[in-house]
Amino acid sequence: MNIMKYTSLLLSVLVMAASAYAQEETAEDKQEGHTNQNKFRQLYDEFATPNVYRTASGAPGHQYYQNTADYEMDITLDDENTRLYGEETITYTNNSPDALDYLWVMLDQNIRSKNSPAKEKNSSEFAPVTPAESFVNSHMAPEFEGGFNIKSVHQDGKPLPHTINFTMMRVDLEEPLMPGQSFEFSIEWDYLINDHTVNRGRSGYEYFEEDDNRAYVIAQFFPRMAVYNDKEGWQNYQFWGNGEWSLPFGNYEVSITVPEDHVLDATGELQNRKKVFSKTMLDRFEKAKTSYKEPVVIVTEEEAIANEKKNATKTKTWEFKAEMVRDFGFATSRKFIWDMMAVKVGDKDVMAVSLYPKEGNPLWEDWSTRAVASTLETYSSFTFKYPYHKAISVHAKSQGMEYPMICWNYGRPDEDGFISDRVKFGMMSVIIHEIGHNFFPMIVNSDERQWGWMDEGLNTFMQYLSEQEFGKKYPEVLVGNNETFEKYPSRRGEPSKIVNYMKGDQDFISPIMTNPEQVYQLGNNAYAKPATALNILRETVMGEDLFDYAFKTFSQRWMFKHPTPEDFFRTMEDASAVDLDWYWRGWFYTTDYVDIGVKEVKNYFITSNPTTEGKALLARYGIDDPSKDPRTKDAVYLLTADSEDFESSMKEGSPLDNAPKLQEYLMDNFTQQEINKMKQPKHIYEITFNKPGGLVMPILVEFQYADGTSEQVRYPVQVWRKNDNEVKKAIFSEKEIVKITVDPNQETADVDTSNNVWPREETTSEFEAFKNEN
Ligand SMILES: [Zn+2]
């Protein structure tokens, strides 16, 4: 009998056995309803069908379009009465293939109007004990008279019919706005500015009693065009407070009139610097433009303190122009200290800028502008070169909020000057985060109203990388007042930091793919979990090279455009050839967690003596005497030490000594040279990995050997595709294995590590630990 025929016969016996097993498994799966639950199935049901606007590759389609909104605005601040007045002219351009009968304009200030339903969106109850301040704020304070007062909506003086529904205003058009056409109209408005220290609110003022001044950080301050696109039609989902914004790009010309003694900065390029700067400020500004190592102070602390004592009655108008921005914000106060430095981004100079009251020092003069500069460098290297000419960090109590080129950040030393590590790293982290938002969502302009994670998650992931870079660039920052850190102490991003959330009460966890108004634990859901998932994807699943290339591809494809989650998911696969549907499905569409363990390890031996178990298996296929049957006469039998046949089959020596028929088979069929190249089985293990957790992940394993060496091995995630509960691995090892550890470097956010080690480590009970200590 020739070898080929022989082998195929034996194989067919064993394949029969295997397929019988497989059939049983399938029947069982069907019974349990597993058939359609395969975690590797592609996301066809969840993803929108690709079309001419968005391709299956995740890139913009050949008919991709976006509408634009240009603004010309005159803004006046009435500091004494904390009111803001504005007149704006919007030019809205319809690049869509659709005729638009009306336009939707967002009136975000209306969330603070007296009858705002947002105030009653949560159930409310009384706590047994409440701090006086929050009791007064919640139950006793007079209702704030916020919200837009819309004085007129008109086109060249001719009133336009409009309807206000909470935070949305529909402007009806006489004629539909046809594809390719623009519509120009004007709105006149004013509103009472809120104290942002009361309820944060992303915008407002802080009042400083000591010197009777306010510092304003102003945003969502003008009626803004909503987005119309191929995904949502008009995105006019109301602003309830959690889901942020969906905004079209446009060009802005904005004049802002404030008291003469205010220092002001805003989105866009300052057009009348010579008019609003003193000679000294201009000289310092010229110096700052070439200062790459350290910030140059434009308004010093001394000067700011002198300004605090003024109370100008005259005004000054600051003029700005911005191109391709999706929003506009500004900060103004007589309290502001101002510093700047230059940072090279590619071959372009960008100004890193900070504005802060003296209350922020010395923390702010030391670190704010440096953090801005470093963030622009890191983000640019991972995405695209920062395209704007400046980025400003403004200090505002309890704020962490982003706008194009400008953001508000918390972090203030105690009144006695002490700076805890919590305050210091909190301040640097929030600056890195909010400056980072210039990339996501200010430029990679996702729909925040619908997908909080697309800006916060991508940005928090990049924040983690930037923080680590910042710690390397400025090692002195790692020396804290409480302790010295080995690396920048990032709050989010490390897999181990997400474990408590992932293993928490499932009743209070939502999938990442949930609208931000509906999620539980928004911080963990939209920031920490997606950031960690991307970090794990980069470090453990894809590897840095494939991930970084794909992430950069996504950023560049969607720079100055409006991506959806699918555009991101698809691009990450398209640019890497790594199927990730299982990863998106598990991490983004479910609340499953990672828990993989070692269930059992069997140590096998081989013999040529037919074992009881082996014979029983062959008998099922009609082979009654395996040693006589040509198909099985030199078969190899595997058995464990507790097998009843062990004593009779085993004798001292190398594993092959107990399998003479295998040796004969080798001699008959191979040359000595070929045999020498073969692996010699010394230790034979069958390891069962189980998976109590719902998420599938590659199995990362460390084998420790009796000779003191160790080795790390990874089994691809695909190992779970036909059995979601447990998988086995048969291993021929040269060395004796003494310890097996799953996820030895804690890369996967495994929520229960007590099952990760074999042999099981004795866990001391809390009671025993207590006894031992005492
Ligand atoms: Zn954010």
SSE arrangement:
Elements (H helix, E strand, L loop, with lengths): L2 H29 L36 E11 L4 E11 L6 E7 L25 H9 L8 E7 L2 E2 L2 E4 L2 E10 L4 E11 L3 H4 L4 E5 L4 E6 L5 E2 L2 E2 L3 E2 L15 E10 L3 E4 L2 E2 L2 H4 L2 H10 L7 E4 L1 H8 L6 E11 L4 E4 L3 E9 L2 E9 L6 H20 L7 E6 L4 E4 L2 E4 L11 H16 L15 H22 L25 H4 L19 H21 L1 H14 L7 H10 L6 H9 L7 E11 L4 H8 L17 E4 L5 H4 L10 H10 L2 H5 L6 E8 L8 E7 L4 E6 L10 E8 L3 E6 L14 E2 L7 H8 L1
Parallel strand pairs: 1-14, 21-22, 22-24
Antiparallel strand pairs: 1-2, 2-8, 3-7, 3-11, 4-5, 4-8, 6-7, 9-10, 10-19, 12-13, 14-18, 15-19, 16-18, 17-20, 20-21, 23-24, 25-26, 25-27, 27-30, 28-29, 28-31, 31-32
The protein binds zinc ion.
Question: What is the CATH topology assignment of the domain at 65-271 and 319-333?
Answer: Immunoglobulin-like
| Fraction of helical residues | 25-40%
Structural class from helices and strands?
alpha+beta
- Care to count the β-strands? 32
Ligands bound, unique: zinc ion
What ranges have pLDDT less than 50 throughout 5 or more consecutive residues?
A: 1-9, 15-35
Strand content: 25-35%
CATH class of the domain at 65-271 and 319-333: Mainly Beta
**Overall radius of gyration:** 33 Å
Count of helical segments?
Answer: 19
Which CATH-level-2 architecture of the domain at 65-271 and 319-333?
Sandwich
Summarize the main sheet. Answer: 8 strands, mixed
Would you identify the CATH H-level superfamily of the domain at 65-271 and 319-333? tricorn interacting facor f3 domain
Average pLDDT over all residues: 93
